[in-house]
Amino acid sequence: MRKSVIIATAVFAIAAVAVFFVVRGRGETTESYRFVEISRGDIESTVGATGALEAVRTVQVGTQVSGQIVEILVDFNDRVRKGQLIARLDRTLLLQAVRDAEAALERSRSEAELRDYALKQATELFASRIITETEYRTAEFNAKSAAAALSSARAGIERARTNLSYANIYSPVNGVVIARNVDVGQTVASSLSAPTLFVIAEDLGKLQIMASVAESDIGQIREGMETRFTVQAYPGQTFSGNVRQVRMQSATQENVVSYTVAVAVANPDGKLLPGMTATVSFLIDAVRNTLRIPNAALRFRPSDALLARAVRDTLLPADTGGRRTVPVVPRRTASAPDTATRATTAFRRGELWYIGPDGVPASKLVRLGLTDGSFTQVVAATGIAEGMQVIAGVLDGGAATSNGTNPFQTNQRQGGPGRPPGP
Fold it and tell me: Which residue range is the domain that position 280 belongs to?
């Protein structure tokens, strides 16, 4: 009895070991793949930058005289007209200066009349040889000096009256008050730099973005180029604009060189406000309704086991001389509105892997064009069509182990050699 139990136990152990190795061997030779789909759509090549929205033209309104603010007639966001009174300064000291200038003018006028009379007498006496020529010349000099002093007094009164008029501050342009830096009772002092009382934006229906573009990207930016941008105030909404100016002056910060690009933006509904931070995308190149491949499929590298049983393509589709002209989005320019520009894109080579109808892995060579970082354009291919499932990675125990791909990507079909989702 005991001998029978020992024999049965040994047989069971041998069977268990055999089953273990069989299952282990099957696991090593069976692979599950993560697939992505070839589709049709748009591909855009863009350059990113950030900048602040601002009015195309802003005017800083200051004061040319010193004094105390006694009245402010406009506030933030008020619309003003050119020549409209917007603030007043205290006129007390300015009026006193006008009275002093008037008194000085009267004194100069009296002095001039006296000197003219003295000159007239000296002329008669000198003609009769009663006074010397020196005395005559002195009288003549005094008369001319008095006339000059009179002219200076007249200029002084004009200056005093002009300064008095500066107590009234008027808007120099039609626009909107976007900043008010003073309050009633505040004293402003005019010196070498005039203090800024108000900032008026001439037209908020037209704004501009002063975008900072890196040195490595500025060579691709051209005037008239289409741009898109977003602001945090309106998440999910995209606005458009056009490059108005590429400025040659550079700025260096932490050894990084950048250039300022002015982007013209239409703001007819007034939703965009000066000072908003805009994330800008400059549209460098684009293709529409093209066959495209997720970049994850192009990064896939087959294992030795897959290569051992795969049917590998060795024929690269013919090209048109190594470069191809592809259409890009229309752009509006002053010289050619609504015209489509074209750009030349160099071909690149790629290899796609899929599972054939017989369950055998296979590959196809393709020629690639424009990429946006997520998808790449297919410009020449044989046996590649929309809806085809290609391999993007290998699943190992439920986790993707593809080369350089994201295991957390969604909306991707999975399959294995027994369930080919190929062409």
Answer: 48-56+203-284
Q: Looking at the chain, how many residues does it have?
A: 423
Rounded Cα distance between 345 and 225, Å, is 18
Q: How many CB atoms lie within 10 A of CB 97?
A: 18
- Do 148 and 252 share a domain, yes or no? no
3-state secondary structure of 7: helix
| Token representation of residue 421 | 């989702």
**C-alpha distance across the termini of the chain, in Å:** 63
* CA distances in angstroms from 391 to 54, 343, 372, 394, listed in the order given: 48, 31, 20, 8
**Same structural domain, 183 and 208:** no
146 exposure class (CB count in 10 Å sphere: 0-12, 13-18, 19+): buried
Report the DSSP pairing between strands 399-400 and 414-415: unpaired
Amino acid at 236: G
pTM over 0.85: no
Q: What angle do CA 190, 191, 194 make, to 5 degrees?
A: 60
Confidence tier at 14 by pLDDT (50, 70, 90): low
The pLDDT of residue 340: 36
Q: Are strands 414-415 and 32-37 parallel, antiparallel or unpaired?
A: antiparallel
Q: Give the total number of structural domains in the chain.
A: 4
Among 31, 38, 37, smallest CA distance to 361 is for: 31
Give the whole-angstrom CA distance, residue 363 versus residue 312: 5
**DSSP per residue, 336-398:** STTEEEEEEEE-EEEEEEEE-TTS-EEEEEEEEEEE-SSEEEEEEESS--TT-EEEEEEEETT
Helix axes 92-127 and 133-165, enclosed angle (nearest 10):
160
Q: Tell me the DSSP string of 310-343.
A: -B----PPP-SSSEEEEEEEEE--SSSTTEEEEE
pLDDT tens, residue by residue, 321-365: 443 433 343 443 333 333 333 444 456 889 999 998 888 899 999
Q: For residues 164 and 98, give the distance between their C-alpha atoms in angstroms, rounded to a whole number.
A: 8
Q: Are residues 197 and 109 in the same domain?
A: no
**AA letter at 415:** G
